[in-house]
């Protein structure tokens, strides 16, 4: 990471209630759409920190041009590692970005991807939800992709806000500590919130257009296999995972999706990849999924 970066707080939009942090790499086809979406918000942010993780496609220039026009957009270029580091790389960048604002007084922070189109009232809606529920720790809209001219919504449990466009209550986020440096970081933070009695949700009435389908950054097969691996390292209950993998055969590419998920989980288990969850988080996750299946909770692993 780049050392000794200083944030000039005098450039911030003082009226804003939240700060956005975006980790970006080679998003030339989508980043301008996301920037324009943020600029059109009825509740604009206090600041937007865009961490460019070594882009080589010209997307850096787009961000820099907007940063000149809007001083509260802060563009930080990081060295090119030469490849995408999915999961861990995003978590590390977010930790770096939020560390830059650690001493700034702000109510909420957002993790926002650079491949989204947001409704103009996206953040106004999320802020209202936060105001209405003081125990709400994480919320997002419901992402969808466009396929054959129609909206296809990504599948999310009601308590699992999308990692693409989340709003966090900053005090709660600071309480649970930094994001775990691993694939599955966006599951672990939910578990940590809920263990402490805070709530998390995805809004089913607020939509966000995910321009690039979830999990396809390195190809569909990698994304589906990574899904299974992610389920293993975040401590999924085996029966719940199996049923989830079988259920996923309903969606394109059907049985191939199930096979990829099973392979990803089994390979992670065979390699004994370290879990991203603590014992307490693992047990909580198992019981959460057992309860969804109508089974009794366990007292221990």
Give an overview of the whole structure.
The protein is an alpha/beta fold and 301 residues long. It contains ten helices and nine strands. 39% of the residues lie in helices and 20% in strands. Strands 1, 2, 3, 4, 5, 6, 7, 8 and 9 form a nine-stranded mixed sheet that branches. The longest helix is centred in the C-terminal third of the chain and has 16 residues. The two termini are 37 Å apart.
Taking Cα atoms only, what radius of gyration do you get, to the nearest Å?
Answer: 19 Å
Tell me the number of helical segments per DSSP (H or I, 4 or more residues long).
10
CATH architecture term of the largest domain: Alpha-Beta Complex
Q: Give the overall shape, derived from the CA principal axes.
A: globular
Structural class: alpha/beta
CATH class of the largest domain: Alpha Beta
Can you give the helix content as a percent range?
Answer: 25-40%
Keywords:
301 residues, single chain, 2 domains, 10 helices, Spore Coat Polysaccharide Biosynthesis Protein SpsA, Chain A, 39% helix, alpha/beta, 9-stranded mixed β-sheet
Sequence-ordered SSE layout with sheet pairings:
Layout: E1 18-24, H1 31-39, E2 47-53, H2 59-69, E3 73-78, H3 88-100, E4 108-112, E5 116-118, H4 122-132, E6 136-147, E7 150-153, E8 165-169, H5 170-176, H6 185-195, E9 199-210, H7 220-233, H8 238-247, H9 255-270, H10 279-292
Helix pairs in contact: 7-9, 8-9
């Amino acid at each position: 990471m780049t050392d000794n970066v200083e944030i000039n707080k005098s450039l911030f939009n003082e009226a804003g209630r939240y700060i956005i942090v975006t980790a970006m790499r080679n998003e030339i086809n989508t980043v301008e759409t996301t920037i324009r979406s943020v600029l059109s918000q009825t509740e604009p942010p206090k600041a937007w920190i865009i961490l460019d993780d070594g882009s080589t496609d010209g997307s850096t220039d787009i961000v820099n041009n907007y940063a000149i026009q809007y001083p509260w957009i802060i563009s930080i270029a990081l060295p090119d590692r030469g490849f995408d580091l999915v999961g861990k790389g995003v978590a590390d960048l977010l930790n770096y970005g939020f560390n830059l604002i650690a001493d700034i007084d702000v109510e909420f922070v957002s993790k926002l991807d650079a491949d989204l189109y947001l409704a103009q009232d996206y953040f106004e809606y999320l802020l209202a939800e936060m105001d209405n529920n003081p125990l709400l720790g994480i919320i997002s809209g419901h992402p969808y992709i466009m396929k054959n001219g129609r909206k296809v919504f990504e599948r999310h449990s009601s308590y699992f806000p999308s990692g693409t466009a989340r709003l966090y209550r900053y005090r709660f986020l600071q309480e649970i500590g930094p994001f775990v440096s691993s694939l599955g970081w966006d599951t672990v933070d939910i578990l940590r919130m809920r263990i402490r009695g805070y709530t998390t949700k995805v809004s089913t009435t607020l939509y966000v257009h995910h321009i690039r389908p979830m999990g396809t950054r390195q190809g569909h097969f990698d994304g589906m296999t990574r899904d299974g691996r992610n389920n293993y390292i975040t401590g999924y209950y085996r029966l719940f995972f199996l049923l989830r993998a079988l259920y996923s055969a309903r969606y394109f590419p059907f049985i191939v999706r199930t096979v990829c998920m099973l392979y990803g989980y089994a390979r992670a288990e065979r390699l004994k990849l370290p879990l991203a969850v603590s014992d307490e988080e693992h047990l909580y996750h198992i019981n959460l999924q057992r309860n969804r299946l109508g089974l009794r909770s366990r007292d221990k692993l």
